[in-house]
Amino acid sequence: MASSLPLLLAGAALLAGCAPVVPHLAPTPAVIKDPRLDFARNLQPALRTTQLPVFFATTRKAVDGPEHFGNGQADGVTLGVATVRLGEPGWTWDQLLASDLASSVAQPRPGEVELVQVMGTAGRGDAFTQADRDFIANIDAQLARTSNRSVVLYVHGYRVTFDEVAVQMGSFAHYLGQGATVTFQWPTGTKFWNYVTDCPKARQFIPDIARLVALLAQTQARQVNLLAYSCGSPLLASALAQLRAQHAGLDHEALQQRLRIGNVIFAASDVDLKTFAREHVKPALDLAQQVVVYFSRADRALGFSSLIAGASRLGSPELEDLEELSLDELRVMSEEPRFQAIDVTDVRGAHEMGGMKGHGYWYANEVISTDVTLSLRYPIPPERRCLRTKPGTKVWRMPEDYVECVGSRLLEAYPALRR
């Protein structure tokens, strides 16, 4: 192990992925810039604001100072809500909308966590605390204010701060019409070498993520959509496998009634491909309406991760690893229509935003983030959201006219969106 340590550290040095530490908004998804569409017109007046809530469950330790939670580990899971400001201090609603139309990855817009309200410590297992009940009640109150009755849960990757994640997901809450957005935040440092220790240590929080998913099913949400990024992906995948095992006697329909999981989305996933195929796909499909995997052959961070691990990653798969899977394992990934593998390698535009080249495409690229945003709100099959299969494969891609097609489909389904 000692002889391999320099290689591990060298690889980790290149794994600058998962974004910089300065809180900023994600660039506006391309469909929101479509001049035919007006997504803000149906928002209630109270939601026309630059401040919005982002709920959180965190195992980070609270700290004094502007960052709110640091990279130390707390005793238990803290539940609360962060008030996130989008844009410059003093911006009006109209200024925020104008910035949405002009935004680009080259000029990140600032954001800030202005207030953190802690509700208390989550319970363990089936035991509920007052914090659990307050968490559910506050999410329900947010859902009652908006037409988007979906909850989104995000599990981040490494090398990010609490405030950065909150602001990033605050921008997606804005793009989604201010449904209830939740982050599970685990302790990670802000140095490149934290990859070597933080991602493996985070596995201890898998039961906490499983419990959080079950807790969100206690809300009034029509569905709960889940998103995991980078080395947050093995945490969510394993949590879903644990959750499935806890309800071993229930079939897919019964699990849908109990947990109401819509889409499970894995983006740039730093999880072993063969492990995912053998242990995670089937439980996730049992629980969810759809499982969506975005991958890119140009993801350098996962290329180095594969080198360190000695096996390809889900977010940047190698064909030879697929050949080692059994026929049954391959059949689930190639024939199940509810499993979607989406190759974004050749999508034009930025594929990173301050991190390792090719690793941050799900939020940096306005075309890819359009599909992610749609999938965070609606369980729409890929062909209905304008994706096309690659010839001779079951892999989906985004055609050149993807944004135009999506805008037209939205207008057909929701004529009230016409500007």
UniProtKB/TrEMBL annotation:
First and last residue of the signal peptide: 1-18
Gene Ontology MF terms: hydrolase activity
Pfam families: DUF900
Keyword vocabulary terms for this entry: Hydrolase, Signal
Domain of life of the organism encoding this protein: Bacteria
InterPro entries the UniProt entry points to: AB_hydrolase_fold (IPR029058), DUF900_hydrolase (IPR010297)
Residues passing through the membrane, by range: none
Entry keyword Hydrolase: yes
Protein name: Alpha/beta hydrolase
